[in-house]
Amino acid sequence: QDVTFVGTGFLVQNAGSVKAKGIELEAVATPTEWLTLDSAIALQDSEFESFESGPCASGEVSDGVIPGTCDRSGDKSPNTPRWQVHFGAQLEQPISNLVTGFLRADVTYRSEFATESSNDPRKFQDGYTTVDARAGVSFDDGRWELSVWGKNLTQAEWIPLSFDGVLQPGKIYAYPNEPRTYGVTVRASF
User: Fold this and answer.
1) What values do phi and psi take at 86, rounded to 5?
2) Which parts of the chain sit beneath pLDDT 70?
3) Whole-angstrom distance, CA of residue 72 vs CA of residue 50
4) Distance between CA 48 and CA 16 in Å, rounded?
5) Residue 82 and residue 149: Cα distance in Å, rounded?
6) For the CA atoms of the chain, what is the radius of gyration?
7) Residue 113: which residues within 8 A CB-CB, separation 6 or more?
8) Over the stretch 70-82, which tens digit does the pLDDT of each residue have?
9) Under a CB-based contact definition with an 8 Å cutoff, are residues 55 and 80 in contact?
10) pTM of the model
């Protein structure tokens, strides 16, 4: 299914069919008892195999089966970057019989992708990299945990979603990603 903006609202419709193929590899290594490394890499190719009533890009002449729509068959499906790569590392060390300290860092890369299904060149997001980190202590075999964390530490900026302006041809609205964020988490398991 696809959500298409039709000038005054959003229309959820069947996009026909999507053809997706790819490969994903994951690996986890524990070189020492206190260090764990993990990684994942995904290569994907996803496109609308058949979508004859899709949204038109700004200025595009309608050629879809429904007036005011465009044939998106063969175009990239939205939010499907060709490459996604992730690396993570976690250090974990007992401090005492009841307390374990930990430190985790994650780096994730996503390549360019369309932010919506018209494949308007202005609505493509360039590739970006994010860095997240977390540090803390766990007590009583992990039943209690206290951690401080940060997400998007490098202040990467990207647009996960965009759409045309209401009754304003050529105008684009977009939702930006969350900026750098920090927090403290207290977790209990019963």
Assistant:
1) -135, 135
2) 4-9
3) 7
4) 8
5) 29
6) 22
7) 76, 78, 79, 80, 81, 82, 124, 125
8) 999 999 999 999 9
9) no
10) 0.85
